[in-house]
Amino acid sequence: MIKVLKAGLETSIQDYPGRYGYWNQGFPPSGPMDSWSFRLANVLVGNLPGAAGLECQFLGPTLSFDADAVIAVTGADMRPALDGEPFPMWQSVAVRAGQTLALGAARVGGRAYIAVAGAFANEEKLGSRSTFNKAGVGGIDGHSIKAGQELPVAEGGGTPGLLVPNEHRPDIRTDRSWTIEVCAGPNDDWIDEAGKERFLNSAWTLSAKSDRTGFRLEGPEWTFTEKAYKKPKEHGSLPSNIIDQGYPMGAINLAGQTPIILVNDGPSMGGFINPYTVPSAAFWKLGQAKPGERLHFRLVSVAEAQHLAKEIAKRCVRENLVNA
Amino acid sequence: MPKRLLAPLPGLFYRRPSPEEAPFKQEGDAVAAGETIGLIEAMKSFFPVEAETAGKLARFLVQDGETVDADQAIAEME
Amino acid sequence: MIYEQPKFLPAGDRYLLIEFGNEMNLELNFMAQGLAAAAAAANIKGVIETAPCFASLLVHYEPTLIGYDDVVREFFRLSASLGSSEDIELESRLFYLPTHYLDPWTKACVDDYCAKIARKVPDPELLVQENGLEDVNHLVRLHSSSEYWVASLGFWPGLPFLMALDPRARLTAPKYNPPRTHTPEGAIGLGGAANSIYPVATPGGYQIFARTPVPIWDATGKRSAFEGSLCLFRPGDRIKFVPVTREDYDAAEEAVKEERYEYTIVEYQKFVVRNYNNWVSKVGEASNARVSA
After folding, report:
1. Residue A89's Cα: distance from chain center in Å?
2. What is the pLDDT of residue C221?
3. Coil, strand or helix: which one is A106?
4. Rounded Cα distance, B63 and C80, in Å
5. pLDDT band at B1 (very low <50, low <70, confident <90, very high)
6. Touch between chain C and chain B (3+ CB pairs, < 8 Å)?
7. Which of C180-184, C244-248, C279-283 has the highest mean pLDDT?
8. Structural domain boundaries enclosing C56
9. How far apart are CA A20 and CA A33, in angstroms?
10. Torsions phi, psi for C259 (to 5 deg)
C-alpha cells in the first residue's frame, strides 16, 4: 500500500495503452501522455511496460510507503526526494517501509511517471486501470488520486540499481521549443495551400487552457479550400464545421479558428475538421510540453510515423538497462 | 537581501483575478502573509501565488500573462 | 451526396477514416454500421476497434500487426462485399424508455437559463414554432410516435446521437446560443436533426422537453442491462420513448433507486435496411430517408 500525503496536480493512475475497445461508445483510451517515459519506468522495476503506474502533471505528489518496494521515477524533472534526500531518476531504487517520496514542481518537462514493482492494483474498468477523470472512470473511485487515499499495489519483485542510459531516454528539452511530427489528414483537403504552409511554418504557442482532453494552440489564421464553403448546410455554419465524424487520438481539431490537439482523454467524435493528426510517436513531446512553450510541426508520412513508434518501443525493453 | 516570491508550478502568470478586474497588488503595496499576489494557470486551473511573510511588494519580475517556469522568481518583497 | 466508392483517409499512424458521403442521411450511417459489423465478424488481425458516425467509420488499428495499405485493402474488400446498402441487416436491440414529457425539471432548467443567461422561447414552444406543429401536445404525440436509431455515441461516453426512423416524426431545432451550463441527467433533447439523452448532468445545447428516470450511464458497471459496459447503448440500437405520467415516472425512479428496475429491451429483431426503405416509401416520404439538419 502507498499512502497519498499530497496529491499534486491531477496525479492519476494510468496503464498503457489504456482503455481500448469502447471508442464506439465514446470512451477515450486515456493512458499516459508520455508513454515512452512511462514504459521505461515500468521496465526499470521489472513490470510489463504497460502496467499501471502514476502520471504526475506539473506538480507532483508526496507518497509514503507502508512496505518495502522497488520504484522508479522517469519523465519530467520534479526534483524527487526520498525522506528529503535527492532521489535519482531513470533508476530502479529500493525504498523501505516508512519512507516518503516527494515530487515538486516540474523544472524540465511537464509530466513525471512513478512505477512500483508489482504495479498498482486498483480495480479495472472496461479492461483498463487508467483514469478518465472527466467521466469518473477507472483510477481510484474514478478520479485522480487524493490526499489520504491508500493506493493498492500488487506483489512484485524488482531489482534495484538498474538505469536507463541516456541514449534510450526521451530528450526532454529545456529550450521551450518542440518539433512535433504530424501526418496529413483526414481532412487536409479542407485547408488551402497557404493555410497548410502557415500551419507547417509557424510557431504555435501551447495555451494554459490545455489538459488531458485537448491541447489548445495559439497561432495564425487558417484559410480554407472551396470544400469548406460549398457544402450541404447540415455540415454547419463555420468553414471548419463538418457532419459529425469520428476523431482519431492526436487529431488537430479545428474548432472555428482554434486548433486543439485531441489527446488521451479527448472526445471520440464531433463536428469539426481534423486537417492533421499527431502520430503516437510524438505524444511524449506533448506530454512534456508546458503552457507557453512553442510547437513547430513537421510533416511525416504514415509509414515514417509508424517506424518512429516502433523505434520508441524498441527502447522500452529490459535489455537496454545497465547497472547504475 | 530582498525576498523573492517563486512560481509554485510552471504555467502562465496573471496579476489579475480575471481580465476585467484590477490587479491583486500594485508595486509598493503592503502584503500580508498568505495573501495572493497573482495566479498561475496550468491545465485549465488557476493556482494562487501567495506571500509567505508580510512585507512590501517591491516589484514584479514577470509581466502579466508571461510564461513562467517552476521556482522562477515572480516578485521581490521587502 | 453518397460517394460511389467510400473514401479512405489516413489519420495518423493508427487510424483510418472511411467516408461514405457528405450529407446527413440515414443510409450513410447504415453503411458505416454495416461495415463495422462486417469488420467485427471478419476479426481482422491488428484491427482494434471501429466507431461509426453519421456518414463515416473510424478504424483504429495496431500498425505493428497490420500496415496502412493492408487495412485499406481489407476494408475496401469488406465494403465491396456488403453490396448495396439495401442488403445490410443489423442486429438491433430495441429499448423502451419511460419518458415524462413536458416535465418540471427541464422546464425549471429552461426557466433558469432564461432568467440568468438569455431570454428565449421555451424549448417545447420553440419546437412547435419551428416545425409548424399545433401545440405542445402535438409535439409529444409526434415525438413519441417514432423509434429512434442510435447512429453513434460521443461528446460524453454513452451519449447517443439519435435519428427518428419515422420520417413523419423528423423535427429540427436550432441549438442554444450560448449553450446551457447545466442540463438535468436523463433530459431528452433535440438539436439540428439529432435527438439525444443526457447520460449525466452536463452542459448542453439541445432544446429539452422531456426526461427519463432510467439511467443510461452507470459508472459502477454493475447493471446487467449494460452488458459489462458503463453505458446502456451501442450504435445500431433503437429507442422508443414511452410517455408516462408523473406518478409512473416517480415509481420508475423509485424502482431504479431500490435496484429493482427492469429495463424493457427487445433483443430478437434485426434491422433490415431494405424493409425499412420499403416502409419509408410506403409512409409517403423520400425513399432514401433523407433528412435536413
Report:
1. 18
2. 83
3. coil
4. 61
5. low
6. no
7. C244-248
8. 2-87
9. 15
10. 55, 35
Contact residues on chain B for A290, CB-CB shorter than 8 A: 10-11, 42, 67, 69
Burial class (CB in 10 A: 0-12, 13-18, 19+), A28: buried
Q: Would you state the pLDDT for residue A235?
A: 86
Asked whether the predicted pLDDT for residue C288 surpasses 50, the reply is no
Give the residue-averaged pLDDT of A150-177: 95
**Inter-chain CB pairs, A–B, below 8 Å:** 59
Q: Domain of residue B11: give its range.
A: 3-77
Average pLDDT of the segment spanning A150-154: 98
pLDDT interval class at C155 (50, 70, 90) = confident
Q: Which three cell numbers stand for residue A232?
A: 450541404
* Residue C288 included in any domain: no
Residue C292 at interface with chain A, using a CB cutoff of 8 Å: yes
Do C113 and C150 fall into the same domain?
yes
The amino acid sitting at A114 is: I
Total domain count for chain B? 1
d(CA A40, nearest CA chain C) in Å: 19
C79/C146 same-domain check: no
Spatial neighbors of C177 by CB under 8 A, at least 6 apart, are: C118, C205
- Domain boundary at C44, C65, C87, which? C87
A91 — phi, psi (to 5°)? -140, 150
The secondary structure of residue A132, as a DSSP letter, is B
Structure confidence at residue C290 as a pLDDT band (50, 70, 90) = very low
Q: Are residues C152 and C261 in the same domain?
A: yes
How far apart, in whole angstroms, are the C-alpha atoms of residue B62 and residue B78? Answer: 17
Q: How is residue C44 annotated by DSSP?
A: -
Q: Name the minimum distance, in Å, from the CA of A229 to any CA of chain C.
A: 13
How many domains in chain C?
Answer: 2
Q: What mean pLDDT value characterizes chain C?
A: 93
Whether residue B9 and residue A293 make contact (CB cut-off 8 A), yes or no, is: no
Strand pairing report for A204-206 and A214-218 = antiparallel
C17 near A CB under 8 A: yes
- ipTM of this predicted complex? 0.96
CB C242 within 8 A of CB C138: no
A120: left (phi over 0), alpha (psi -120 to 50) or beta: beta
Structural domains in chain A?
A: 2-161 (no CATH), 177-313 (2.40.100.10)
Q: For all residues of chain A together, what is the average pLDDT? A: 96
Give the DSSP H or E segment for A246: strand A241-246
Asked whether C247 and A152 are in contact (CB, 8 A), the reply is: no
User: Which residues in chain B are contacts of A59 at CB distance < 8 A?
Assistant: 8-9
- Give the residue with greater pLDDT, B52 vs C214: C214
> CB–CB of A291 and B12 under 8 A?
yes
- Interchain contact, A107 vs B41, CB within 8 Å: no
| Residue A219 scores a pLDDT above 80 | yes
CA torsion A295-A215-A12-C215 (nearest 10°) is -160
CB contact under 8 A, B41 and A105: no
Specify the pairing of strand A100-102 against strand C147-153: unpaired
